[in-house]
Amino acid sequence: MSKFLSQIVLNRNFILVLAVLLGMLKGEFAIYIKDYTFYILAVVMTFSMTGIGTRSLFPLQRNIAPMLLGTFLNYFVFGAVIISAAYLLMPSEQLFYGFVVIASTPPGVAVIPFSNILGGDVKYSIVGVLGAFISSVFLAPAIVGYFAQVEGEGINSFQLFLNMIKLVVLPLLVSRLLLWKKIEPTVVKLRGNIVDWGFAFIIFTAVGMNRQVFFSNFEVLLLTSLVLFIGTFGLGSLYEIFVRKAGIPEDVGMTQNLLLTIKSSGFAVVTSLSLFSTEAAVPSAVMAVFVLIYLLYLSFRTEYRNYKLKSQSI
Predict the structure, then answer these.
(1) Regarding the domain delimited by 32-306, which CATH topology (the fold level of the hierarchy) does it fall under?
(2) Domains in the chain: boundaries
(3) Of 16, 70, 121, 146, whose CB has the highest number of CB atoms within 10 Å?
């Protein structure tokens, strides 16, 4: 019984749902965590990137295409859809800026494990995620600086560039040190819990700082959900049709779908809070729920299809 309970408590989905619920119920404590979310994310990013093996990057010439396509799908295709929808539907500038931050955010590290779970191409996912992360150092300041104009002045793109160095480049370098053979087994053992609970604290903060939206401003919640539904379920479904029409291998197509639709909600929360207001973090908090629902939907659908195939083969 205790083993069963521990598996539930350490389950990624349970932890994220718990963070959202606690943010709604005990959100007054989020103010004490807000100032530390940047450092929490830096630790999370460092441990997350230990899942990206250095050897997977070679030979380099074979990985250029996945890197570029991961960047194109994650920033340009998703970004164009989400920014356009937010521009048309968001009732305030701060909420629109929140979606601009989401568009400039790198893909979620969940792309890699879920590529494996959903029968995707795992190596393709590793290379695609890394390419998108490296690109974020330059693309994030450009996207936010262009679309988010505050009182006629652009966001300090250089400051955002420095933040990306701290949250992407430095964690990537430090993660190589954590793959030292003597400590790698311990790092791998702890990685899942550190990443899951780190993101949980960040999501708790975003939800807690904006829980009045979840309880009272249903119009904002509905419009935000609509934009995110378009960017995940809508865009993902259209891309699946494109994959079939274009004859792209199913495993590669699944990984590309994840690179297209899955953004790092924790990254978006921290960036929104550091650049704008707590209101701008609302889309990122809601996105955390949508990412979870979308991944669960893909997982259940894959399990159902596998079950049907087994039944037909009997």
Answers:
(1) Na+/H+ antiporter like fold (1.20.1530)
(2) 32-306
(3) 70
